[in-house]
Structure formats: structure tokens, C-alpha cells
Design goal:
Blueprint lengths: L1 H18 L13 H35 L3 H22 L1 H9 L5
Length: about 110
């Protein structure tokens, strides 16, 4: 019984160690990074606006496909909605991509 209890405690401790997420602290210092950050902010604002509009259109396709019993239109609406969400996720990661690209030290 004692060995089983030890095993459970060990597995629990390891699972907590795996599941803990450290807070990232990006370093945006360097030449030209402020200009890239400004461009990233503008791109994110444009992508977010277009994604909201596209999401509304896709949701409309889902509703129209459901009402008219047209499964193909409904599926295309779902694909459009997932694409809009994925686009916002990628655009949200632009700042991290800039930081990652700066840390590569290619030259």
C-alpha cells in the first residue's frame, strides 16, 4: 500500500511539473523592432476587422444552409468560421514571431 501511495504522489508531482506553464517574457529591444511592432499592430487590427466581417458572413452561411437544408452551404460556413478563428490566432502570434525572428542571429 505504501509503494502504491508513493507511486501516485510521484505521478501527481510529475504531472503538475508537466502542466505548469511559465510566463513568457518577450524581449522587444533591438534596431527596427519598434517599426516592426507598429506594422504588426496595424496588420493585427486589419486581420481582426476582416475576421469579424468574415465570421459574420460565415455564420450567415451556416444559418442559411441550416434553414434551407443545404448541408454543403452549412459545411462551407463552418469552414469559413474556423478559418477566421485560425487567422486571428495567427495574427495574434505576430509579436512572438517577430521576437523569435530577431533571436535567430542569421548573419
Amino acid at each position: 500500500m505504501n509503494a502504491l501511495n508513493e507511486a501516485v504522489v510521484t505521478v501527481h508531482a510529475r504531472a503538475l511539473h508537466v502542466l505548469t506553464v511559465t510566463n513568457p517574457s518577450p524581449d522587444f529591444s533591438g534596431p527596427g523592432v519598434s517599426a516592426l511592432q507598429t506594422i504588426a499592430n496595424v496588420v493585427f487590427a486589419i486581420v481582426l476587422s476582416l475576421a469579424v466581417i468574415g465570421g459574420l458572413v460565415a455564420a450567415g452561411f451556416i444559418v442559411v444552409g441550416h434553414i434551407s437544408s443545404n448541408g454543403r452551404v452549412q459545411k462551407m460556413g463552418m469552414v469559413g468560421l474556423v478559418s477566421c478563428i485560425a487567422g486571428v490566432a495567427v495574427a495574434g502570434g505576430i509579436a512572438g514571431l517577430i521576437n523569435w525572428g530577431q533571436s535567430l542571429r542569421v548573419a
